[in-house]
Prior knowledge:
The complex is a heterodimer of chains A (129) and B (328). Chain A contains two helices and six strands; from the N terminus they run H-E-E-H-E-E-E-E. In chain A, a hairpin with a 6-residue loop joins strand 3 and strand 4. Chain A has a single domain (16-128), classed as Ribulose 1,5 Bisphosphate Carboxylase/Oxygenase. Chain A is an alpha+beta fold and 129 residues long. Helices cover 21% and strands 36% of the residues of chain A. In chain A, the strands form two sheets. Chain A has a four-stranded antiparallel sheet with strand order 2-1-3-4, with helices on one face. In chain A, strands 5-6 form a two-stranded antiparallel sheet. With 328 residues, chain B is an alpha/beta fold. A five-stranded parallel sheet of chain B has the order 2-3-4-1-5, with helices on both faces. In chain B, strands 6-7 form a two-stranded parallel sheet. Chain B has helices spanning 2-22, 31-38, 40-50, 55-76, 98-111, 125-128, 136-147, 170-183, 196-205, 207-212, 224-237, 244-258, 265-287, 294-297, 302-305, 318-327, and strands spanning 88-92, 120-123, 151-154, 189-194, 215-219, 241-242, 299-300. The radius of gyration of chain B is 24 Å and the shape is globular. The two termini of chain B are 42 Å apart. In chain B, helix 8 links the parallel strand 3 (151-154) and strand 4 (189-194). The A-B interface holds A 16-17, 52-53, 55, 57-60, 62-67, 69 and B 1, 3-4, 7, 11, 116-117, 119, 138, 141-142, 144-150, 184, 187.
Amino acid sequence: MRITQGCFSFLPDLTDEQISAQMEYCLSKGWAIGIEYTDDPHPRNTYWEMFGHPMFDLKDPKGAMIELEDCRKAHPDTYIRINAFHNERGFESVVMSFIASRPAKEPSFKLTRTDIEGRSQRYSWETVK
Amino acid sequence: MAEAIGQNENHNQLDTQGESLEAPLPTSIDLQAEYENSGVGEVLDELDRELIGLKPVKQRIRETAALLLVESARKAMGLSFETPTLHMSFTGNPGTGKTTVALRMSDILHRLGYVRKGHLISVTRDDLVGQYIGHTAPKTKEILKRAMGGVLFIDEAYYLYRPDNERDYGQEAIEILLQVMENNRDDLVVILAGYEDRMDTFFESNPGFRSRIAHHIDFPDYGNEELLEISQSMLHQQNYHFDDEANTLMSKYIDLRRQQPYFANARSIRNALDRARLRQANRLFQQNDGPVTAEQLSTITAKDLSPSRVFNFTPPSKEKRKNVQKGK
Lengths: 129, 328
């Protein structure tokens, strides 16, 4: 199942050139780029693994592209996303995030219903690889 | 990294295709107009105006600028072109303006469109080499990532290589540097700087470096008159000036200072001027005769220069001098 999280996720996958252009935009806004990866794209899995440090003093997207390339090599077949962190007072949070890489075969989710007291039911989602 | 380069090439192809669809390739290009449009002329003129002496260096920079202009014209006309390698090494004695020129260089390369962002990251050994195993590679890569799209200036680059310690982590940093210098030629320009003799031994022990650096620029020592001019312009920048007497004394100072050990060209001059300003401030305090004028506050007189040790310095005997230089 195609995961749709973050910006651009309803578009076809971004090419490296497009990713680079998006990074350029982030850098022009003064945001720090961070790279994260995970093998579990469950919507509740908010915190992915960080790859390296967030890059605070980059001027050119090439530096982040090298890091992304390294991440793809180190963790092939995972989800990799690019986070742009805005460190201005009042924001101090991620302001843009998009998926830059997907595994060849994406996992799906299984819906589990559990009976609880009365005739109530509880729903939960589980990632199925 | 190899992949990244492949994509860059694709990107270029796409670009030229796009151009050829829109408009036919130009059959002639006015180099003079290109030169004026790029704004390089201004930077070069500024270089001429603000940096005194350094003729061979300026000549080299002009040549580089011309090469880059011609290459971009060739590119625009669809002729085969190869991104020229622009890694440089600046060698010269202390205080000959290596760092200053490196700063200008990043500006020139940016205006010529050779580097995308035109910022300068200035580092020394400490910024590249780690302190324990596994520390060096991330550290060097971090710096290189920051330098992408700009110029990486490695001051006193010969410290990277310590021949006396074969387990030194400097070697690791050198290997990473070499790899990036080769693979990311479009992305950054590396400038190594250092004193000539030490850089020579550095290149001898790292032949890979010598061959990857196309431009070896040698910074000559300044002449006495150039140094006097430099001292005047340094003072001018800080809104000071010499009076006539001080001017002649300064040229005598330069002549004497040159013969003494640890002479560092413009840097020695700057230090001498700093001390002169100190003495001038002190003199103004001690005079204590009524309010001072702006003219007084900004004039360096012979009295501020003459107490310098340089004027009553007896050159050490030859043997002693040799020892001093060895100790250095």
